Amino acid sequence: MGMFHYYDLPSAEIFVFDDFLICQIGEGMEIHPEHNTNLKEVIEKHFLGKNIGYISNRVNSYSVDPLTYVETEKIPNLIAMAIIPETEVMRKNAEYERNFYDKPYEIFNCLGDAINWIHCLIREETNS
């Protein structure tokens, strides 16, 4: 499971791995539905025909328009989202945002747990 691509975008860093990607949004950013354009491009380039998970490593403070999730869940091969909040405020925001995303969505305390969860979901999807 090695990282094979890295993107340094104006609003975020994206680390692409075999079965998932990790996104770290920049400090103070405001994320809106149109930000899904970059995400879709990365997924189409690296995960065409393959299920993946999205991990949000929230090491910075930023805001998310909840309607962003409505658009994100339309990406067909994106099967789950894991959030790793750094602070209690970030955790409460993630809990609220969960209401806008109808695919599997979990909040974790560490990156390793999020990766394990994503791997389990992908294995289940592959075997069904």
Order of strands, main sheet, comes to 1-2-3-5-7-8
Task: Report the sheet-strand fraction.
Answer: 25-35%
The SSE order reads EEEEHEEHEHEH
Cα-atom Rg, whole angstroms?
A: 13 Å
Average pLDDT score: 93
Tell me the total number of β-strands: 8
Percent of residues in helices comes to 25-40%
Overall 3D form: globular
* Individual helix count: 4
Structural class from helices and strands? alpha/beta
Distance between the termini: 23 Å
Taking pLDDT < 50 over at least 5 consecutive residues as the criterion, the unreliable ranges are: none
Q: What can be said about the biggest beta sheet?
A: 6 strands, mixed
Characterization of the model:
The protein is an alpha/beta fold. The strands form 2 sheets. A 6-stranded mixed sheet has the order 1-2-3-5-7-8, with helices on both faces. Strands 4-6 form a two-stranded parallel ribbon. A hairpin with a 3-residue loop joins β2 and β3. It is globular and about 40 Å long. It starts with a strand and ends with a helix.
